[in-house]
Write a structure and sequence with these properties.
It is built from 10 helices and 2 strands, in the order H-H-H-H-H-H-H-E-E-H-H-H. Helix 3 packs across helix 6, helix 4 packs across helix 5 and helix 6 crosses helix 7. It has a single domain, classed as Hypothetical protein af1432. Strands 1-2 form a two-stranded antiparallel ribbon. With 180 residues, it is an all-alpha fold.
C-alpha cells in the first residue's frame, strides 16, 4: 500500500517523529516531488504517489533510532513492512545509501528520494557540496572509515544527479530558487 499524505502524518505521530525531522521530511518531499514531476513531464515513468509517500516517510525510523543508535534506514524499512507499506519500503530502506545501484537502469522513485534527501540540510535546500560538508562535520569526526563512506556515497549521489538532470528542464543549482 502507498500511504496518503494524511496517513504519512499519522505515522509520523504514531512513531513520535521529532518536529525538526518532520520539517526535513516535508522539504525532502517538496524537492522529490518537483524532480518527479519534471521527469514525468519529459516522459519518465515514475509514481508521484510513491515519491511523495517515500519522501515523507524516509526518516520514519530516525527518532526511534536516536537512543538505540540502530540504523534508522533499516528501522524505517521495518516500520513500512510492519504497516503493510511494501510499495515504499525500499524507498525508505535505501534513502541513505542505494544498494546494488546501476547508472544504466531506468530511473526509479528510490533514486529521486535518495537524491532529494542529499539536497536538504535540516529544512533548507542546499547544494550537494554543502550537504557533504555538513555530514562530514556531523558524522565524520575522527572516524576515517565514516569520512570515506560518506565521500563514496556522495560520489554516487553526484552520478545520480547527472542522470536525473540529464532529463530535466532545470538545473540542480536552480532547485532552491524553484522551491521558494
Amino acid at each position: 500500500m502507498i500511504p496518503s499524505v494524511e496517513e504519512c502524518f499519522k505515522f509520523m505521530e504514531k512513531y513520535g517523529m521529532l518536529d525538526n525531522i518532520r520539517a526535513h521530511s516535508i522539504m525532502v518531499e517538496k524537492v522529490a516531488h518537483m524532480i518527479a514531476r519534471g521527469l514525468q513531464d519529459v516522459g519518465v515513468d515514475v509514481s508521484l504517489e510513491k515519491v511523495k509517500a517515500g519522501a515523507l516517510m524516509h526518516d520514519i525510523g530516525k527518532t526511534l533510532s536516536l537512543d538505540t543508535r540502530e540504523d534508522h534506514e533499516a528501522r524505517g524499512r521495518e516500520i513500512c513492512l510492519l504497516n503493510h507499506l511494501d510499495e515504499i519500503a525500499d524507498i525508505v530502506g535505501e534513502h541513505v545509501r542505494l544498494k546494488n545501484y546501476s547508472l544504466d537502469e531506468a530511473i526509479h522513485e528510490k533514486d529521486i528520494v535518495y537524491y532529494a534527501d542529499k539536497r536538504v540540510n535540516h529544512d533548507e535546500v542546499v547544494s550537494l557540496e554543502e550537504r557533504l560538508k555538513y555530514l562530514l562535520r556531523r558524522y565524520g569526526k575522527d572516524k576515517e572509515y565514516m569520512v570515506q563512506s560518506i565521500k563514496e556515497n556522495f560520489a554516487l549521489c553526484e552520478a545520480v544527479e547527472k542522470k536525473l538532470f540529464a532529463k530535466l528542464n532545470f538545473k540542480p543549482e536552480e532547485l532552491a530558487q524553484i522551491i521558494k
